[in-house]
Structures
1.
Amino acid sequence: MRIDIDRDRLVETMEEQAAIGGTDGGGLHRLTLSDADAEARDWFADCADEMGMDLRVDAFGNMFARREGADPDAEPVLVGSHLDSQPYGGIFDGALGVVAAIEFVRTLDDDGIETERPVEVVNWTNEEGSRFPPAMQGSGVWAGAHDIEAEYEKTDADGVRLVDELERIGYRGDEPAEPREPYHAYLELHPEQGPFLEETGADVGIVTGIVGLRWAEVTFEGQANHSGTTPMRYRDDALVAASDVVTAIRRLPGSLGERTVATVGSLTVEPNSVNIVPETVQFTTDIRDPDESTLDRGVERMEAEVAAAAEREGVDYDIEHTMRAASVDFPDRPVEAVADAVDDLGYDGRRMVSGAGHDATHTASVCDTAMVFSVSEDGKSHTEDEFTSWADCYSSASVLANAALDLAGRVD
Ligand SMILES: [Zn+2]
């Protein structure tokens, strides 16, 4: 039997949170552990309090609000996302997942529904990673992917330590930052942040996994020299070698996999002067695909292109592999709970793999995990122009609520 969330209240709750750190451009500037983030956390705590939920804050600031189940010893179902935002980001990214989880519990209360399992609503610390690296930090600490002491020492652009900010805003909690007990499942609703759902005319995304990624930093070392007096045959130009690789990376996905994407997103040139042959160029490569062997082939091809470009131009090179995240396949049980909810509600759902990392990346190593995606208009994300219509917020939040209830087990 379905539950119906209150559409008007969902919109009101979205607007309430959007006012905290809201920008003139209609977006959100709520960097993790800032004053605005503290205010959003207080708001989350108030919501939990009003619902009579028990709130725990762990040593990394992750917040868990609990609604008991008929069987308090049953493994809980965890639902949520993050309330921090990118600098001048949108009001939906992260917040929609937290608000939908709150509305799910409010609906249970409204309808007097008891669940077999406890339900916990979570607000993860620092999903965005734009103030303190890395992204998905709070869930990563909780899942054991990062050492908490090392993450405490991370500093922002002003040299402020993360742990000091956590203490300053009063959200360094008493609980160890780790799963307190085994969890039955984790469900997260998030905007797609890409154009796939809109392009295919779908209402909602049934996320079956998250792509893996490989990051590297490449350095070419040539010879600086006068741009007027150095004949072309004498040049060891690091930027020319880098340019060959940039275009090779752009062409790489076409010959690898249908879903491969590859990017050179950052590049620095030294000495970076109009009349000097470039001596040192450093740039990053980012290759993503759902398939691990495709990723490995992508990295091999990137390495071969770098070596060939260095050889052609007569420059030295170095490749440092800076990050490797394995792709995640969500298990059938929670994915089918999402798919069943989509069917029950009569929506057009599309199965898809997430091209971005999420807190679900880390929870997947702790418990059965799945995600619901809402439509992102024009695929825009990490900008004030990010937009998901209220209709799409409602349909995706309804799917989340019904899938979560399915996993939590309704007591009749
Ligand atoms: Zn997000």
2.
Amino acid sequence: MSWRLTELPDQTDRTTLVTGCTVGGLGFHVALELARRGGRVVLAGRSVDRLAGAEAAIHDELPDAAVDRLVVDLADLTSVRLAATEAGRLGPLHALVNNAGVMATPYARTVDGFEQQLATNHLGPFLLTGLLLPQLVESGDGRVVTVSSQMHRVARAAPLGDPRHSGGRYSRWPAYAATKLANLLFTFELERRLRVADRPVKALAAHPGYSGTHLVANGRFGRSSGGVASIVDAASRAIGQAPAMGALPVLMATTADLPGGTYCGPGGPGEMRGLPRVVGTSRQARDEHDQRALWEVSERAVGITYP
Ligand SMILES: NC(=O)c1ccc[n+]([C@@H]2O[C@H](COP(=O)([O-])OP(=O)(O)OC[C@H]3O[C@@H](n4cnc5c(N)ncnc54)[C@H](OP(=O)(O)O)[C@@H]3O)[C@@H](O)[C@H]2O)c1
């Protein structure tokens, strides 16, 4: 059954932290709609200016919205740790939306020695989730929503090797697909571990189909405006569904009355567009061995264990 924005419940007294809220992307629309329903939103991102732009755009539409900002570079474990410490002042969190991501970037390694897409899309969010978990537990009704992709279906294998090992040939698209598979493996393993540990937090996932955001231009050029990047960005926006539509599966996973482990995506052809509903995953994403193995690799890589 499709879910509609009109079903988004009142968010008064609820705080949601959304990563990757730059104007024009999915996270911005997730935050905007939660704020429209009276929720307090924490915009988390790596650029002070882009966070300020997102906050100003929300206030243009909703002058009384409760908006906070948190600077975090998910591709840098030290930055994630600092941000989590800073987030202590926010009090209980009702939802963490792991939305920020990069796609098909040229080969690069982060300051921690990880491939950039794996660091940004999985390892940084893995650490952030673990460090914010006490605040999610404190709310008594916490939720972790992680944004995956239909691309998880084309992943050759889960990224289970030592993430600091730089051997092997790098291909941008398979590397991206593997991180989006990791988002689902992470979600299902987190959900299982939360149940075993009896924590009042659920883990769900969502994907936006194909949405016209800055993802393509950012991945290709490291920016979404200027020269060819502007043309690619405009083309991407023209082809994909509006980011406000792409945000709906994420909003559904964040607010609808659903069990942990649910995955939401667009209900249209190929799950590329349309109103959201509960969708399925590849068989690989349900592989419990890979879920456990990725969890253990990730704990070692970022240096914490939870829940
Ligand atoms: N658009 C689609 O069709 C599509 C399809 C499937 C899945 N997705 C997923 O949807 C999510 C959102 O992407 P989008 O389409 O909205 O793309 P986007 O417009 O490029 O937004 C991505 C957001 O992530 C932030 N980000 C990137 N690297 C970061 C880092 N190291 N630390 C903190 N924040 C960082 C970006 O910040 P900056 O502005 O500073 O770069 C931006 O706010 C991603 O996880 C993506 O994989 C999108």
